[in-house]
Write a structure and sequence with these properties.
two-stranded parallel ribbon, 10 helices, 10% strand
Length: 440
Amino acid sequence: MDLFLLPRFKGILVMFIMLLGFQGVSVAQQLARDTLSLTLKDAEALFLKNNMTLIAQHYNIDIAQAQVITARLFQNPQFDYANIFYNPVSKKYLDLSQKNEDNTFNGEYSAGISQLFLTAGKRNKNIRLAKIGVEQATYQFFDLLRTLRFTLRSDFFSIHFQQESEKVYNQEITSLKKILTAFKEQYGKGYISEKEVLRIQSQLYSLQTEYNSLLLNIESTQAEFKLLIKANPNVEIKTSYNYNLDEKEALAAVSYKTLLDSANTNRTDLKIAQANMKFNDMNLKVQKALAWPDITLSASFDKYGSYVTNYNSIGIAFPLPVFNRNQGGIRQAKIAIDQGKVQYQQQQQQVESDVATSYTSAVRLEQLCNNFDSKFRQDYTKLIQEVVKNYLARNIGLLDFLNFYDDYKNNTLLFNGALSDRVTALETLNFVTGTPFFNN
């Protein structure tokens, strides 16, 4: 480089450094606008308070409890009354008069009351069946809670680490814009070649395209996350999270057997399968009880309609179980029992598979992340800042500058992705075991 050009490039370098100083203020002002900053604890509190799906599911427990009340109720007694509509003798409507002097009948009415009594313990069996329904609804609620909480926490970590990657793109795009603006000015004065300007411009466009794809991913995850906490759709979520797993062996504190035992004990979907088997067993007892006829006891009174005046009687009625002994209902209940056992065994296998797969993945990611030098990222960030300064000072060429930039971006994205995968793997273990062993 000619010596008379050196002061101009020093001026460019000074201008670039000053612009970088204002970059942080500009970005901070942008983020402060329509932004909702949340910690993981804040997000979970909003989720438990506002999630509409969870609230709606909780009503199913109330519905099931109301069904228990219904099952406890006794059958209502039945009352019947009949009165003559038109008496052709007295020529009266709804005649309630007594006999005439010539012993002709004037009024006629009758009344009766009956009560149905369930046999074979049907009422108690239906009460127990309804209580199992409450148990099923409760487990379904907590299984939905487990699933949605896992989605919430996974989305939170995904947003956080993608936003960390977003910072890298912001820094590089902002830097390249400053360089491109300065170089266009220098190109116009004939100090640098057009090829160098075009290469910087090409790199900038490539970064902007990648950055846009990253923003689309963040927006998609944020849309689901905001729906979970019932946040304003127009608000941008800003996560606050301190990653503290560097060089830690989180899995060493919990053995694989402990994880598996916890899953078999605490997985709500497994408890649902168990409750379903209990429901099927009780339903068979109910169906067998339905084969027994119920009894109706009655009492009646008739003023003049029988062979004696003021006729009264008591009676009993029940169907004869000759043809219908609820054979189909009993058979269906037996089949449901066999089906429930198979579904429970399948769910057990699913639980074991989930724990094994998640544990293997978590171990692998822990080993990978613990092999990273915790100071590498900080040192590499300082290095890229020096690279920019040296490029502007023409101490390194364009190709080296672009290679450094690509390496820095790719390494940062891979690093953030690995950290995100590790945290998500621990969250997955919490999910598949039904126990918060790892509170990240």
